[in-house]
């Protein structure tokens, strides 16, 4: 059986992304941006998230793709960034995340593409928490989102119950997850909360990110 030390050496990062298809991504932003600009923003957010994951240099990076890895954007990213591609599973967000943790089996950090405020240092801090070999080290690590969700989840091993019965997309996600963690008797660490871009009222925050500035044109 693998030791705890062996498992920590296998820590990896999963980046969840949708293909930047007009009308099929960033749908809550379409009323403010239009379908084409929303898709363009998704593309730039995905590239930024992947760059941050690779710059953290804490383990292998896999891009988990929706609707599937055969999309032209993902194939181009694979060639450009030399990153592994995997298709996201069917089901709601919780089922898809649970499937990614199950597929990896060991310690894994999972992020989406909605948080341009996420830095390599944040991923490094989360990785350090999962690599903590103290007896009372955390089983899970989170970076909450200011809107009540979370922008990063890291687990030492798969915990499918954390992803079932959650009101995804609501302000209750992190609170419900805390209740699941406590019920399961798990120890967890929360790093400082960050903002993400889900709704039109979040768009003003992008002004300070030069690499995202061209989403309008």
TrEMBL record:
PANTHER family membership: GLYCOSYLTRANSFERASE (PTHR36529:SF1), SLL1095 PROTEIN (PTHR36529)
Designated name of the protein: Transferase 1, rSAM/selenodomain-associated
Coiled coil: none
Lineage start: Bacteria, Pseudomonadati, Pseudomonadota, Betaproteobacteria, Candidatus Accumulibacter
Keyword Transferase applies: yes
Domain of life: Bacteria
Organism encoding this protein: Candidatus Accumulibacter adjunctus
A GO MF label: transferase activity
Pfam family, one: DUF2064
Keywords: Transferase
């Amino acid at each position: 059986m693998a030791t705890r030390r062996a498992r920590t050496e296998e820590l990896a990062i999963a980046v969840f992304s949708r293909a930047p298809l007009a009308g099929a991504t960033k749908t809550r932003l379409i009323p403010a941006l239009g379908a084409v600009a929303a898709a363009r923003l998704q593309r730039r957010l995905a590239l930024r998230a992947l760059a941050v994951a690779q710059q953290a240099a804490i383990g292998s990076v896999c891009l988990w793709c929706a609707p599937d890895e055969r999309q032209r954007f993902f194939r181009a990213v694979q060639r450009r960034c030399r990153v592994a591609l995997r298709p996201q599973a069917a089901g709601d967000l919780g089922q898809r995340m649970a499937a990614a943790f199950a597929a990896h089996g060991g310690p894994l950090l999972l992020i989406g593409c909605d948080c341009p405020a996420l830095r390599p240092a944040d991923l490094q801090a989360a990785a350090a928490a999962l690599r903590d070999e103290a007896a009372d080290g955390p089983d899970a690590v989170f970076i909450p989102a200011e809107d009540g969700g979370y922008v990063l989840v890291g687990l030492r091993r798969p915990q499918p119950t954390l992803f079932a019965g959650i009101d995804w997309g609501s302000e209750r996600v992190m609170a419900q997850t805390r209740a699941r963690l406590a019920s399961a008797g798990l120890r967890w660490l929360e790093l400082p909360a960050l903002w993400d871009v889900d709704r039109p009222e979040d768009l003003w925050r992008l002004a300070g990110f030069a690499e995202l500035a061209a989403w309008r044109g």
